Amino acid sequence: MPELPEVEVVRRGLARWAAGRTVADVQVLHPRAVRRQAGGADEFTALLRGRTLGTPQRRGKYLWVPLGDGLSMVGHLGMSGQLLVQEPEMADSVHLRARLRFADGGTELRFVDQRTFGGLAVEEAEADDPEATPVSLAHIARDPLDPRFDDPAFATALRAKRTTVKRALLDQTLISGVGNIYADEALWRSRLHYDRPTATLTRPAALELLGHARDVMTAALAVGGTSFDSMYVNVNGESGYFSRDLDAYGREGRPCRRCGTPMRRDPWMNRSSYSCPKCQRPPRA
DNA sequence: CCTTTGCCCTGAATGC
DNA sequence: TGCATTCAGGGCAAAG
Fold first, then answer.
1. CATH for A4-137?
2. Residue–nucleotide distance: A182 CA to C16 C1' (Å)
3. CATH class of A151-275
């Protein structure tokens, strides 16, 4: 599932293979893929045609491609979204949702998304500035790999929340880019249980948790991200290698890499949390 | 205002 | 074998 490292790998792929190219034609094969576009597929297509793609940007799990005139193509991969740069001759996937053809007649940019939680849209940015964030992303916090992420402010805000620590890590308005996988990894590294109230964390503990989240995502990015099946691949269809380095996520019943205790999986918010029952003690009820 | 819940989706895995 | 159910989960609207 694409979280920050996986989206960053895709962003880099777009920078290399799509930036600077001019859109000749757009095809939307599933309306849900452009549901964020107020004017639907027709508007999406009309706004893209003839535009030259700028340098792709990212905040958390969102990415966008500046198009000039204050417009950007904003994308989110959701659960299963892929942006693929493929030769026109390559057969379409049954889950192909949108296609951009370029004026140079070379490779196409294809948006493939099995579960249709992802999407694309052309939107306004606040200014015609490469730093400008699309208006619709104004509520998304900076991510821990952003040089302007404010660590002390994060620690303060985290401790002021009336919630539990894993919920807070997944709150994209507090810290963006962290999903279920890297949340579990950061908590394991911090020896924190997912249900620990944020208000009970000391300031150093909050900063340590942030550091671990940053470290684990940096390490994952260095090896191309985490791939389990074909749910996440880079723009060339290649998998990342971080799944073999995961310490918590998906390791139910396998020994904790720190203490050897069998790892457990708990149902949590209609999904799963993986933790070590010895290293990550639950808070008192 | 802040936090929590439910919904959107499809295919693989599991249950009977 | 085959049909029905469960699970995966990010983001947002709506409820609490």
1. 3.20.190.10
2. 29
3. mainly alpha
